[in-house]
Amino acid sequence: MSQDSFSRCHPAVNFLYFVTVIGFGVVIQHPAYAIAGFLGASLYYLLLKGRQGLSFIGSMAGMLVLITLLNPLINTSGEHILFRLFGRPYTLEAMAYGAALGVIFALTMIWFGCYSEVLTSDKFTALFGNLIPALSLLLVMVLRLIPSFTRKTKQIIVARSAIGKGADATESRKDQIKSGISIVSALTDWALEGSIVTADSMRARGYGCAKRTNFHIYCFRKSDAFLVGLIALLAALVLALGGTEAGFTPYFYCDYVTLGFPAYCALLLVPSIMYLREAIVWNNLKFET
Amino acid sequence: MEQLEIRNLSFSYPDAVRETIVDVSFSISKGEYVLLCGNSGCGKTTLLRHLKSVLTPTGSCRGEILYNGVPLEQVDGAKQASAIGYVMQNPDDQIVTDKVWHELAFGLENLGVSRETIGLRVAEMASFFGIQSWYHRDISQLSGGQKQLLNLASIMAMQPEILILDEPTAQLDPIAASDFLNTLKKINQELGITVLITEHRAEDIFPVADRVLVMEKGHLAANAGPREIGHSLFDARSPLFPMLPAPMRSFYQCGGTGTAPLTVREGRNWLTDVFGEKKPAVRTLPPLPELPKTEPALHIENVWLRYEKQSPDVLKGLTMTVPSGCLYTIVGGNGVGKSTTLRTICGASKPYRGKIQVFGKETKKYPRGELFRNCLSMLPQDPTNLFVKQNVREELEEMNPDKQAQIHAAELCEITHLLDAHPYDLSGGEQQRVALAKVLLTNPRLLLLDEPTKGLDCGFKARFARTLKRLTGEGMTIVMVSHDIEFCAEHADIAAMFFDGQIIASGRPREFFGSNSFYTTSSNRMSRCIFENAVTAEDVTALYKENLGDGQ
Question: Which of A11, B210, B281, B532 is deepest in the core (most CB within 10 A)?
Answer without folding.
Answer: A11
